[in-house]
Write a structure and sequence with these properties.
46% of the residues lie in helices and 14% in strands. The longest helix is centred in the middle third of the chain and has 20 residues. The radius of gyration is 18 Å and the shape is globular. The strands form two sheets. The chain has a six-stranded mixed sheet with strand order 1-2-3-4-6-9, with helices on both faces. Strands 5-7-8 form a three-stranded mixed sheet.
Amino acid sequence: MSSTLVRYEILNSTAIIRFNRPEKRNALSRALIADLTAAFKRVAADPKARCVILTGEGPAFCAGMDLDELRGTIGAANDVVWEDAQKLAELFELIHALPKPTIAAVNGHAVAGGAGFVTVCDLAVAVPTARFGYPEVRRGLVAAMVLPHLLRHVGERLARYLLLTGELIHADEAARHGLINQVVQPEMLMETALIWARECAEGGPLALASTKELLRRCSRQALTLEEFARASAEPRLGDECREGLAAFFEKRPAPWINETPR
């Protein structure tokens, strides 16, 4: 595991995993996804780690997929696009199914896949300035992999609003709807997450693992992991995604936006 893109430390009985790509707002490159996967596998095998806190370095928690890297896959072979989607889907599932409690300490904006990481964690605390949302449709993409996790937390009405409009919501609204548990001042973010981790660690390891597995079985989605990954990958092969990404980087409206004079 690279020591530059992900920071891993053990504090008492808590593993702290940090996105460490602040210059890119912790955007998810292939290398970062690989390092996060290695970090969470390390947590699963580490007997000293009873709980996990996931947080970010810099002003953002995670800005979602690295769109510059994604743009480079446009026109690539189908298996490249499929493999990228599959690896992110497997990472979300690894975190969701981890037998140890996971806590997202959201230090800034959590957007697209970044918001997905919040939803696959068991608990979430955020600073007041954090924003949450899924702007994928505005780029001609589909937020398929995060959809079932979002639905579990907020219900269908808000999920439809977030997924179809691409709008971001404030931390207070995210807490009201159950997307996160609590909003705290920045100086209390890690302290709150560590208190929760300590409280979770008071539970028996087998009891916690069994409880998490029961929760996972109760909320099992209708579609398979592969189906969600494919639904995420397929739009990346089409013209709409190509045009949407071009518009994003050129800072102009996407071609499907009908701008009429007011």
